[in-house]
């Protein structure tokens, strides 16, 4: 039987942090915060608009155009932030 090696997280995390510049890490943290906070605000706005008290239901069934636009802006902001962080890291 083949042995699987355990993934050692701390050296991997240290390698990721030391390989990137502090500015690119700050931009990546900014993108993660924007994605998590913006997504939570969008879903809570949607559930408040619909009047649904059960947040575990799949929310994308009846999004309106505004909510789809906000989701698209969130995606574009996060992808642009990742691209900026990668371009800063390459210099």
UniProtKB/TrEMBL annotation:
Keywords from UniProt, A to Z, are: Membrane, Transmembrane, Transmembrane helix
Q: Which residues cross the membrane?
A: 23-47, 68-88
Q: Would I find Membrane among this entry's keywords? A: yes
The name of this protein is Uncharacterized protein
């Amino acid at each position: 039987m083949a042995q699987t090696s355990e993934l050692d997280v701390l050296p991997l995390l240290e390698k990721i942090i030391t390989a990137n510049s502090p500015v690119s890490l700050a931009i990546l943290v900014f993108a993660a915060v924007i994605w998590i906070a913006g997504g939570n605000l969008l879903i809570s706005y949607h559930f408040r608009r619909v009047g649904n008290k059960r947040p575990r239901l799949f929310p994308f069934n009846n999004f309106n155009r505004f909510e789809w636009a906000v989701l698209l802006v969130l995606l574009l902001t996060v992808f642009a932030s990742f691209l900026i962080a990668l371009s800063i890291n390459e210099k």
